[in-house]
Amino acid sequence: MTITLVFLAALLAFFLGWILSRTVNVEPWVADGGTLNDRLPEILTTPRVALAIFLAVASSLFALSISAYHMRMEFGHDWLALPSPVLLWVNTAILVLGSLALQWSWNAARRDDAVGLRRWLYVGGGLTGAFVVGQILVWRDLNAGGYYMTANPANAFFYFLTSLHALHLLGGLVAWMRVVKRERDGASPEAMCSGVELCTIYWHYLLVIWFILFALLLTT
What we know:
This protein is an all-alpha fold. The chain has helices spanning 2-21, 28-31, 36-43, 46-73, 86-110, 114-144, 153-184, 189-219. It has a single domain (2-219), classed as Four Helix Bundle (Hemerythrin (Met), subunit A) (Up-down Bundle), CATH 1.20.120.80. Helix 4 (46-73) runs antiparallel to helix 7.
């Protein structure tokens, strides 16, 4: 249970850091002479609050899954760890680049740079799609090597955890496509800034989740 508590604490720190970055760093109450309470409706918008709630639920799901992983691993002697395909390292690098691309897209939106926003938004989505395809190739290669999901508990948890993460990314791509549609419809960078911001935060979150899962799968 210790790793689960550490995991939840890390995610809680992430949420607090995000909220503080939207308040302390910007200091809108100083800029216009208002108070923080006056600006809370602008800072804690419905989409931001909804995303925070969703991430809290997702964090609980991943934490419970990791806890179940550890408990099952210690349950008996039928746990046979899988090899670590080289492609997983490649996929990890792709996901890092995808998260960076979304960050650069958000930075461009805040600078009112329509060209940069479009370029990095598309690159981020494309790299994320490549990551998911790469994960499918990993599953295919493992199956071809005889590491079937039903062969032993370690295999089952590997497929479950990586699939759970990939499904969350696919859900993110649905939101990403909505942002892309707004861009193609001619929305200004200022109008798109909030949507790109939420996508970026979600991508960073899933990158952190993947680092945790990848480290777990490599070391157990």
